[in-house]
Design a protein that fits this description.
Helix content is 12%, strand content 23%. It has a domain of 121 residues: Hexapeptide repeat proteins (UDP N-Acetylglucosamine Acyltransferase, domain 1, 3 Solenoid), CATH 2.160.10. Strand 13 and strand 14 form a beta hairpin. The protein has 205 residues and is an alpha/beta fold. The chain has two helices and 20 strands. InterPro entries: Hexapeptide_acetyltransf (IPR051159), Trimer_LpxA-like_sf (IPR011004). One of its GO terms (molecular function) is O-acyltransferase activity. Belongs to the transferase hexapeptide repeat family.
Amino acid sequence: MGDHMDTSPILKERDQADSPHDRREYPHIVSLGSTRKRRIARHDLSIYRRPIICGNRNAVWRASWYLVNVFVFQGSVVGLAPGWLKATILRAFGAKVGRGFVCKPRVTIKYPWFLEIGDNVWLGEMSWIDNHCRVRLGDSVCVSQGVYLFTGNHDWNDPAFRFFCSEINVGNGAWLGAYTRVGPGSTIPSGTVLAAGEPWQPTRE
């Protein structure tokens, strides 16, 4: 091992010609794929400092939500509770949730007070909203099973591996296919279909 190590970038790009979909037939399909290597700066995790999350709740709130999340949302049995009940619980913890909410079992939500959900939104089984800051899901958004939305990441050019986070916005009528990944700072346009298993994240130089 040398002083540097290789890592695959979160962002993966694919030319339109390489897309498995015909863009003329499916104009809203987003498909990102080919892998490039990126070198990261040598970092020292002994100097890493836990970030201060602006607007976060205190330890009692976080601990209370952790227990509710584990038993009500992540549970495979209690997780079968109806969507209206889960919406009520989320609102009690500071989330904004519209009408017609559908939430399958084994869903993980980091912090509901950073979550805004429109009308008729579906959260599929084993979806994970890892939100250290605001995530907005517009009306009629379908988040399929195993989807991972993460607002936080680390600066690979910083020796201290600095943590940062940036909001995610998903437009009305978007469909996040199974096991897709949506990274910090992403804006998914209304009506977009994100192909199953594909990542979406803004370009970072």
